[in-house]
Amino acid sequence: MSGRLPSRDEKPVLQVGSTGHLGGLILRELLSRGKRVRALVRPGSDASKLPKDVEIARGDLLDPASLRGAVADVSAIVTSAIGYSQRKQGDSLRTDREGNRNLVDAARIARVPRFVFLSILACDQASDVPHFWAKKETEDYLAQQGVPFVSLRPGAFLYAPEGGYGQMIRQGLEQGQVFGMTPEGIRITYIAPSEVARAIAMAVDEPRALGQKVDLGSDRPLSGPEYAALIGQLLGRPVHLAQMQGGRGRSDDDMMAMFRFFQTGKYVADTRRQAELFGPVPRIEDAARQMLTGLGLLPGT
User: Fold this and answer.
1) Is residue 94 in some structural domain?
2) Which residues constitute the domain of residue 114?
3) Three-state DSSP state, 243
4) Which tens digit of pLDDT belongs to each residue from 183-205?
5) How many domains does the chain contain in total?
6) Could you tell me if residue 301 is inside a domain?
7) CATH number, domain at 105?
8) Which residues are within 8 A (CB) of 56 and not within 5 positions of it... i.e. 6 or more apart?
9) Which of 95, 46, 96, 40 is nearest to 67 (CA)?
10) In sequence order, what DSSP letters do the residues of 99-148 get, joined into one string?
């Protein structure tokens, strides 16, 4: 892992969500940039896989008292924590609403100089999608409470998740079909999680990012048929489009509301600010290739 060694006197970055898939990528990016990291880990969650030089702070977003020590004397807060995906038993939208408000309150009291928040693309236009709107509400609350923040709004992740969902994607591709979310003529933005992680880590220090709400995406959006064609091109064989039905791991109502929002054509990133702050916008081909490699369908580099 490259990057400068952190100074013993340097204040740590508090990372919330470090044990998740994206959180692990963010953690590596922070460490590669020489950051000291303090990870907020819920009681009972396994922190043994985190690097030994990461400080562990036990706490829960739904327990305000547990956040006081975690946010004390940090240089920034970075959070990718979510509850709407219901990755763990007991997770819910309470984390995305009440939990995030608790973290914002703790940051305000501790006078944390920067709060880097993982939001969602076009969340302010999606009042009918509960987990999108919860992100917009947190952005509003950060502004209302006067907490210095950066909000990053990525599009749909192209990634190879662990567990049943990843298995479903792999099995579909092995059978020659890929799951798309929009018909011909309606495009949405996709992005690789690794690019999101890179932007989040850079946002900790980028002075021009402060106070910004920044769309994140790849170089161009795709319709469902275009996405299937791209996957087929990378795999070197025909791939047919299958529309996703229902949700896995989050409420079907929330998931279906998200699909309906995608049909509006509003889920498309304006990547100009992304390029200014974080460098060249990555190609969608690279994001798709990363996903297929993660699924074991393409050889690694």
Assistant:
1) yes
2) 13-294
3) strand
4) 999 999 999 999 999 999 999 99
5) 1
6) no
7) 3.40.50.720
8) 38, 39, 41, 47, 50
9) 40
10) IHHHHHHHHHHHT-S-EEEE--TTGGG-TTSHHHHHHHHHHHHHHHTT--
